[in-house]
Amino acid sequence: MKQKADVGGAPDAVDARLGARLAELRAERGWSLGELAERSGVSRSTLSRAERAEISPTASLLNRLCHVYGRTMSQLLSEVESEPALVVRAAEQPVWEDRASGFVRRSVSPPHAGLRAELVEGRLSPGADIAYDRPPVPGLEQHIWVLEGALDVTVQETEHHLVAGDCLRMRVWGATRFRCAGPEAVRYALVVVLP
Question: Which residues span the membrane (predicted)?
Fold first, then answer.
């Protein structure tokens, strides 16, 4: 988790909407913070602080919550963004950053009603390493196309080394890990298709 760095103490607008949506999802299910902590493996205090936007959640934390709520990360983030248009201009593509892990995520084609796929641009800084202990939705289809640099992707203990132009296609049932494999940043396109 990242501490809020805002000088005035006010939470980032996206983090505030995200925190409110996380609280709504928990309330819709009638769960206490303790019940959600048991289901997600995240401490009650961290969950409470994320819901109040006192911290900006990491990719790993959001992935755990998405798993519990049966959503992809893009679906969750799209619920706190404005209604997506048919044409998504570059300047309007939502960008989310996990500074702690060196991960930047641009939602090129965010989730949209009636569509099952989405397109994400991912960037990992040199040395960045992100591990997800489970998929947000079991059986999620992913296509990872490396645009620049080198990326190591581990899928259920099998590591795949990808360089510019390579594409890895998979269904995600278990743990995954994304690691910048070179001295330069890696940029990749990720197509996510709901099962």
Answer: none
